[in-house]
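Data availability (excerpt). The following record was deposited with the supplementary files.
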Amino acid sequence: MAQLLFKDVNKVYPNGYHAVHDFNMEIKDGEFICLVGDSGCGKSTTLRMIAGLEDITSGEFYIDGVLANQMSSRDRGIAMVFQSYALYPHLTVYENLGFGLTLEGVDADVIDEKVKQTAKILGLTEYLERFPRNLSGGQCQRVAVGRALIRKVKIFLMDEPLSNLDAKQRVTMRSEIKQIHRSVGATTIYVTHDQTEAMTMSDRIVVMKSGGYVQQIGTPYELYFHPRNLFVAGFIGEPPMNFIKGKVEGGKISVGGQQFDLKPVVKDVSSIEGKEVVFAFRPEAIKLVEESKGAKGYVISSNVELTELLGDTTNVYANVGDVNIILKVNPHHTPAMGSEFKFFVPYEAAYVYDAETELAVESDLKRH
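Predicted structure:
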């Protein structure tokens, strides 16, 4: 398999646009890494630099300890899966799967064995004689994955491969790609705008921001429970984390006539005295006040504007003062629209960010 290393990698286009800034990361052999971020954050550009389809402007990129900046795409041991499937419409599934091996001059018997073996892994055996036009989107994507898989490469690169599928197909393909990764063990770099894909599939996630800046690299657990700045906190999680801004006075902030004492959730509250901060909590982290007996935290009053029943949960759109928030509650305890709703935020579920630097204020709390 393959180990990848990035040292201060930058991509600047001839027009001066700086697409990727100082990308630094070590990817372990066999890891599944997801690059996520908003449009224009440089995630696809990073993938193309790994593939050798984009030149690296500055910095160093290594594959298994060998400097790969000038290495040809063919010599990198890479296979790519694209959003558009990129199947040959005039070839059958069998021919599409074996096309790369045919170009390499592999013996026909070996190709036949590998095609049938790959088709079995992907559940495509009964479709081998069909053409792409006779397949569903999910089946076409499996063929595209199979065409990469059959080559036994060291590195898989996937650029939003599931974005053209419907919701049900995406769920199915997520689990299939993860199972394939476990069985093959190839180092995989996966680009997506869908944080659910990233959270459910990856060993580690790279969160990037517009302009090509890496915001945080970590496991799904680390990004969810320990977001290092406001961007990551707002990007990871659905619905997004709630942010309430206020000025610290006497270790407290005031919002909508309510005071929140920050001493229990900040290691050194004097470090933010007099500063603008953002008090934050996740919609799903709240509890009903009557369920919080014995727990330590904040009781917050809100005014309910709208509710959305989703089946297993209800989204409650409310406001605290003039700040809009979203809460997730048990559907059996859905508050009435237009009513006052008090809820409880445990201390360990509350976060504080410096409004100026947007970085998390240090806390001693154990997040879980």
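Summary of structural features: Residues 167-184 form the longest helix (18 residues).
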